[in-house]
Design brief:
The structure holds two protein chains of two kinds. By secondary structure, chain A is an alpha/beta fold. Chain A is built from 15 helices and four strands. Chain A has helices at 2-25, 27-53, 97-105, 139-155, 161-167, 187-217, 221-225, 230-263, 268-273, 280-306, 314-335, 342-349, 354-364, 369-397, 407-415; strands at residues 61-66, 86-91, 111-118, 121-127. Chain A has a four-stranded mixed β-sheet with strand order 2-1-3-4, with no helix packed on it. In chain B, a hairpin with a 2-residue loop joins strand 12 (243-248) and strand 13. Chain B contains ten helices and 14 strands. Chain B is globular, with a radius of gyration of 24 Å. Classes of the chains: A alpha/beta, B alpha/beta. At the A-B interface, helix 1 and helix 7 of A face helix 2 and helix 4 of B.
Chain lengths: 419, 299
Amino acid sequence: MFLLYKKKMKDLGIVASYTIKEMLKKKTFLISNLILIVMIIVGFNIPNILKSFDDGEETGSKILIVDSENIFEGTLETLNQMELGYEFEVTNDKVEFDTIKTKIEEEQIEDAIVVSKKDGKINIEYIVENMNMMNGVPEECINALTSVYSNLQISKLGLTQSQLESLNPNFNFELKQTEEQEVKGNVVAIMLLSLVLFYAIYFCAYQVSTSITTEKTSKIMETLVTSTTPRTIVLGKTIGIGVVGLIQVVVLVSVALICATVCLPAGTLDSILDLSQMTPFLAVMTIVYFLLGYLVFALLYALTGSTVSKPEDVQSANGPVAIIAVVGFYLAYFTMMNPTSELNVIASIFPFSAPFCVPFRIMMGVATPSQIAISLAVLIVTILVIAQVSIKIYSNAILNYGSKLSLKDIVRMYKQKDN
Amino acid sequence: MGLKIENVNKSYGTKKVVDNISFHIDKPGVFGLLGTNGAGKTTTIRMILGILKKDSGEISWNGKEVARKHVNFGYLPEERGIYPKTKIYDQMMYFARLKGMSKQKADEAIKFWMKRLEVEEYMYMPAEKLSKGNQQKIQFITAILHDPELIVLDEPFSGLDPVNSELLKNVMIDLVKQNKYIIMSSHQMSSIEEFCTDVVILNKGRTVLKGNLKEIRNTYKATKIELSTVENAEEIIKNLGLEILFSKDNDYEIAIHGEEDGYKLFKELSKNNMNVIKFEIKKPSLNDIFIEKVGKSEE
């Protein structure tokens, strides 16, 4: 009995290590990961690359302000001190529309603002090359001009310093909630975590299906099942691909974090990700949920992969699993905006959405230990049930070289005796 | 001892693919498993190897129920399969390790068999770069690498050229000398006649004939004579009331109804001082028996 168990464990190790070696040797795997790493490095360096093209003269888009009637009485230069992201060139000369048009076409200026008086009102024209993509005059320009003009008029009233200060609002805005539970973390970090988990789990699991169909296509299955049990093949393959997937995720996330630290201006990463929420517990739980989520979908994919014999049938056979994964992901994703809602708690327990949901609930500090325990228990029970069903169907379906199996065939194979 | 198959049945849904098959391989050697396409050969082999569950009946090896843990077997499936992108050595090592061999023993065995079957130069090449015949030799090696007691070869010679067929035949002869039990399934009756002592013929899942090949053939009367003479012998043949099936340049194929007709003809040829180059009384070949038995069961 012990020897048999030892042999099974040894076979499991042999299948898993063979799978790992074969995956790591695949040119497509190496090239796609290399491309991803290059994309990450380039992505984090885009600000630096853009900077290198900058000749240093431009401080931002140049906007010409034409105040020929001197309505702003020379105060418009203060706009350049407001750091609006534009360089303002102010002129009190009269400039014709055609001249402005030429300046925009020759890229001397990006936009122009023409200030004039009409029927006792101040008329402001905002001239752009093409207003297709614009909803109206930019809000920040309206606010800035309004502010400059108000200050000009107020200064004419001859108010004392304290009167002037009292005119400027000194608001202190604070956000408070009625619920007792406090939600931490920021949306960007949460969305990133969920997305990374979804893609990592989904694509790693998908590899299991492809790998099994490849073995069926190459007709190696018969030799394989006479060498070891179908259970060992499925589990060994799933473990092997899972290990490679985990290594892949760790490498890509590490590259991203190193690039963010090295390439982005100091403090940018902290402001985006709020690294104070990245605790060791969260890291461990993220890996645990990655592995459990991967197992759920990998075993489902093992089932669908064993039901087809031609590579062109893989996609249609995998359709139902893809739908389950997407529904699970969106259930987690859409309820994360309201993490204390009942629906989000349900998403953290539902086994197909829990892997994408629980890590961000932990990050936000809303996941209670009992919720995590229930979620893990449900996930583990689901994995055991799926594994039992998948291995049984796989055992009966792998030697079928005909057309894609129908749902009826799959049910019949589940009822068949184990091979 | 040996392999015992008793009253084995297997159905897929309502279709019975193996119907109450029984046979016994009690001594080392090559056993022929014959049948038309869809006769149930592959299903029977899969049940023998324990990769397909039987519905009823008994399959035992040396008195123990057939299971991976009880039988050290090697299998060359009809559906040839190989990892196309993986190096030959790597995939052989993988299967050898799964069959329980140590890395060192597997390495020695791989190198020995690759040399024996003259495919040594392809050891570190991906399988897809090999010709079909060489791929088949690789699969044959995979089946016997771990020195199994029971070897099942499904169409081992299909796709091989005469030189490679001869190479494989020599290996099979050696395996028989090493007291291996070999089950060979083939459509090439000449190979079966050459190697097998016992056969079973299946048709639509049923056994239509089984037993010792020589004894089976002895139960059949001679049906033909192949004759070659220096002089024209047509008149002598016709005078005995025998039918000439084929004749060309004093070579004849003559229909007879038993050995007695042959003896009579031989005496007449001697009496007439005919110079005989070839005289052979022929019993039905395995091919003839196969066609007759399968044809009868179809009726």
